[in-house]
Amino acid sequence: MPRPTEQNPYLPHSPFCSRGSTLFLYRSFFKEENRMEMYVISVILASSLIIPFTLKTFFPYLWVDISYFGDLLWILVRFVSRRRRRPFFFVLDRFLEQTAAHPDKPFIVFENERYSYAYTDKRSNKTANALQAHPGYKAGDTVALFMGNEPAFLFTWLALAKLGSPVALLNHNIRTKSLLHCFNCCKAKVLIAASELKDAVEDVLPSLTEQGVTVLLMTKHCNTPGIESFSDKVDEASDAPLPMSLRSHITFKSPAVYIYTSGTTGLPKAAVVNQNRLLIALAVLSSNGVMPNDVFYLNLPLYHTAGFIVGFIGSIETGSTIVLKRKFSASQFWDDCRKNSVTVIQYIGEVMRYLCSTPKRENDKDHKVRLAIGNGIRADVWREFLSRFGNIQIREFYASTEGNVGFVNYAGKIGAIGRVNFLHRRLFPYILVKYDTERDEPVRDANGLCVEAPKGETGLLLSKITDIAPFVGYAQNEEQTEKKRLRNVLKKGDLYFNSGDLMRIDKDNFIYFQDRVGDTFRWKGENVATTEVSDILTICDCLKEANVYGVQVPGHEGRIGMAAVTGKEGAQFDGSKLYKHVVSYLPSYARPRFIRVQNAMEVTGTFKQMKVKLVEENFDPGRIQDPLYILNDNEKSYVPLTAQVYCSILSGNTKL
Ligand SMILES: *[C@@H]1O[C@H](CO)[C@@H](O)[C@H](O)[C@H]1NC(C)=O
Question: AMP-binding enzyme C-terminal domain: which residues (predicted)?
Fold first, then answer.
């Protein structure tokens, strides 16, 4: 391997972690070049000698372990050879390779339209040329994309890749304060928005204009001063190639995309996904058995890791066809699959449950879907899904946008998110430590160190931050980045990434996801930061304080939002006013469904201890003396939560 000329350009420092073991191999290959290569090879050899002796332990998973291992080696070899190429090879280059190989193959199918690889390439060239001609943009400037799932999202991203611009993927549900916050944290110079988001853009326009941001709307005409139409310019632009020199400044450390995550506190944070991580992410579908002739159904939001990285980036590697859906729909799901001969679907836990709760149909098993890839499926839903929709292989994995550890359940063990692999764990150290849910922090022993959770017990997942498993952190947010780092875990001075996820490992070495900790909860596949919601509630005139938390509802993944609030002096609780406020400031998944009105916030104990008690008391009107309200979209108000409504929620008659 040639010596790097600049400081460590070979060093992958931000891997996408759907597959931990793959990654440590990738990384180890680059760490110290030949010495490390030899080390990996000898570890591999050693492991193949050890395996026969540990047959008993591994049985009956030995063969899947070995075959998984083979897959990993293959991915590793490919990655290594790409990293050695000059000029640098990025995800965009893989797309161009695919286009050259099969220009006429459909790449994106959307509603009734099909867009070939060649069309996608041309359209993205037109977009890039139109943008380059704009005086408000310079090649390499960061651009924020504010758009729902539609082909233009993908064309524009490719265009920006050709121009060497990092792209911030804004969640199209956010508005006002959150929108501005997200826009600002990646220092974007240009905002490109879908035409239907014009109102949301107008809300923040004065502030954007003040900052000198160029605002482009994907429409042919626009009369609003300060917003320019852009689709007409794209239509007229040339599809000529974009010179390589535009991207010559890019290295593997350059940011490629910013993806927003709601962390444990405060407003969303922009996780930096750099070029190296994106290149690693290419393998996410191919390593799970997706083939070039597969048709992939992408129905998750493109602004999230699942839709963008797993679905889109993963498909660029396999060269398969993406059936893109504007928004997930349980009732249209299988018809879409049948109509488009979909072979691979993608999920989050909610998707699978919604599919299982649709009315049974005779043709439930009539489809070509052979593989489902995703995360968060519950064991009971998993069983039901298989029995209802037939023999579909489920590949459940665990990864986070910014984290440095990942697992994949390649053995198909129902309910698990992955499997402990002694080799993976040795070179890529992660640990489950005992967690004190009352105090909301890891348990520390007399020496101030964390305590490993024994097998079978739930613990917090921590993974060591090393050269080969780095944590890049969040854009413009050192404070939040630091919060995800945990020190003095096993010995004084060591450094781990705090995943914020509680897990359990069983005696067969399967890993199970249990819960998220702290000030975040998950609802409908989205992380909700409680402090962000309470900040917004307390700017409503009638409320003084708000303590937001998530409560569990039988039969649902995650937790639904609830807030304990106190009123302003002399102000009455006004359900319709609060409803209006909540709806205009928060996306639907983050709106507190239940409100508990208290005379005073409890003052004893810590804020967090108080939360634990509130969470335990749930939203049961039979147990809680305080007035309870439920958000009612039909009445556009918070209405009293009666025992009857409560029962109907528990029985599943009232949909949440
Ligand atoms: C579009 O641009 C890319 C990258 O510069 C180039 O490889 C490709 O040939 C161009 N496509 C057309 C149709 O000119």
Answer: 536-608
Q: Which of 587, 614, 604 is nearest to 532 (CA)?
A: 587
Please tell me whether the peptide bond between 87 and the residue prior to it is cis, using omega within 30 degrees of 0: yes
Residue 66 in any domain: the answer is: no
DSSP state of 16: -
- Beta-bridge mates of residue 487: 495
In Å, how far are 123, 181, 194 from 160, measured between CA atoms?
Answer: 12, 22, 16
Say yes or no: 540 and 425 in one domain. no
How much of the chain, in percent, has pLDDT values that exceed 90? Answer: 61
Instruction: Specify the 3-state DSSP secondary structure of 159.
Output: helix
Q: Among 91, 92, 93, 96, which is best to mutate for testing ligand 1, by the most ligand atoms less than 8 A from CB?
A: 96
3-state secondary structure of 69: helix
Confidence of residue 324 (pLDDT cuts 50, 70, 90): very high
Element (H, E) at 560: strand 560-567
Rounded CA separation 651/644 (Å)? 11
For residues 320 and 253, state if they share a domain: yes
pLDDT of residue 3: 38
Q: Is the CB of 121 under 6 A from ligand 1?
A: yes
Work out the average pLDDT over 475-497.
92
Whole-number Å distance, alpha carbon 6 to ligand 1 midpoint, is 29
| Ligand 1 pocket check for 559: Cβ under 6 Å | no
3-state secondary structure of 261: strand
Which CATH number characterizes residue 102's domain? 3.40.50.12780
pLDDT at 35 over 70: no
Distance 347 CA to ligand 1 centre (A): 33
Identify whether the C-beta of residue 563 lies closer than 8 Å to the C-beta of residue 533: yes
Q: How much is the mean pLDDT over the chain?
A: 87
CATH number at residue 439: 2.30.38.10
CATH classification of the domain holding 552: 3.30.300.30
Q: What is the Å distance from ligand 1's center to 313 Cα?
A: 19
Q: Among 460, 492, 515, identify where a domain stops.
A: 515
* Domain encompassing residue 604: 520-651
Rounded to the nearest 5°, which phi and psi values hold at 70?
A: -60, -45
122 in ligand 1 pocket by Cβ < 6 Å?
Answer: yes
Number of domains in the chain: 3
d(CA 427, CA 418): 17
Residues 510 and 528 in one domain: no
**What does 381-445 look like in DSSP terms, one character per residue?**
HHHHHHHHH-S-EEEEEE--SS-S--EE-TT--TT-SEE--HHHHHHS-EEEE-EETTTTEE-B-
Categorize the per-residue pLDDT at 264 as very low, low, confident or very high, splitting at 50, 70 and 90: very low
Residue type, 460: L
Is there an atom of ligand 1 within 6 Å of 162 CB?
Answer: yes
**Which atom from ligand 1 is nearest to the alpha carbon of 125?**
1
Q: Tell whether 132 and 205 lie within a shared domain.
A: yes
For residues 539 and 646, membership in a common domain is answered with yes
CA-nearest residue, atom 10 of ligand 1? 241
Q: Let me know whether 471 and 357 are in one domain.
A: no
What's the token pair of residue 165? Answer: 């611009």
125 CB within 6 A, ligand 1: yes
Per-residue confidence band for 610, with pLDDT thresholds at 50, 70 and 90:
low
Task: Evaluate whether residue 48 is within a structural domain.
Answer: no
Residue 497 and residue 532 share a domain: no
Q: Which helix (H) or strand (E) holds 613?
A: helix 607-617
Same domain, 425 and 488: yes
Does any ligand 1 atom lie closer than 6 A to the CB of residue 402?
no
Atom 2 in ligand 1: residue holding the nearest Cα: 241
Mean pLDDT check: name the lowest of 257-271, 317-331, 611-625, 635-649: 257-271
**Residue 6 domain flag:** no
Q: Is residue 20 part of a domain?
A: no
